[in-house]
Amino acid sequence: MLEARELSKSFNGVVALDGLNVEVQEGEILCFLGANGAGKTTAINLFLGFLEPTRGEALVKGKSVRSDPVSAREHVAYIPERVALYPDLSGYENLRFFAELAGKRLGESELLECLDTAGLPRDANHKLASTYSKGMQQKVGIACALAKSAEILLLDEPLAGLDPKAANEFCSLLREMRHQGVAGLMATHDLFRAREVASRIGILRDGQLVDVIAAADVTAAQLETLYLEHMHEGREDAA
User: Fold this and answer.
1) pLDDT tens-place string over residues 157-209
2) Buried b / exposed e across 213-232, counting CB within 10 Å, b at 16+?
3) pLDDT digit string (tens) for 3-28?
4) Domains of the chain
5) If 0-12 CB within 10 Å is exposed, 13-18 middle and 19+ buried, where does residue 164 land?
6) Which of 15, 18, 70, 205 is the most exposed place for a label (fewest CB within 10 A)?
7) What is the distance between the alpha carbons of residues 84 and 93, in angstroms, rounded to a whole number?
């Protein structure tokens, strides 16, 4: 579903992502962990076509994002740290607008079902988005992905700023979508939530993928220890 082949990006000679090789299959979520500047967001932006690679290729369902960005993005839903909703529209109206923007003309019952599946409280469907908490905004983002029938999710720090209850609900939604065959690539700082939601966890350091672990093979404590070891090695290399 997603594939990076020697995917690299430099900004004014500074390497942000260096030779990333990775695949994400149907029904799999890969979480990228790493410090700020490790290359997590850069990788996601390359898959979205927001950036041009310096070298290598980003593929979505076998299609090059660089040569055919419109076709590649047809299959993708993007959920950033804060979903950008129109504040003077309701959650329902935002969903209808973004669904139509994606070429999906759904009836009222179908749109409400998407919001319900995403976990937005029913009494919030027709309230202005300006009154929503961040967790509610993220749920509308998930509803947009459902309305679009997205096969792939690209998520950039979607858990940042969520309270524990909202984060737990969001991760439950992601696990359910994974079980339905949706593929996902998520950048996060949250080691423990990454282990809960991911099939595999990749650790990025200084633009390089330094480790990939099956989430089921490590405890939360083991993952934390492994992550800190990689970060410590990076500091030693820089010394």
Assistant:
1) 999 988 899 899 999 999 999 999 999 999 999 999 999 999 999 999 999 99
2) bebeebeeeebeebbeebbe
3) 999 999 999 999 999 999 999 999 99
4) 2-75+152-238 (3.40.50.300), 86-150 (no CATH)
5) exposed
6) 70
7) 13
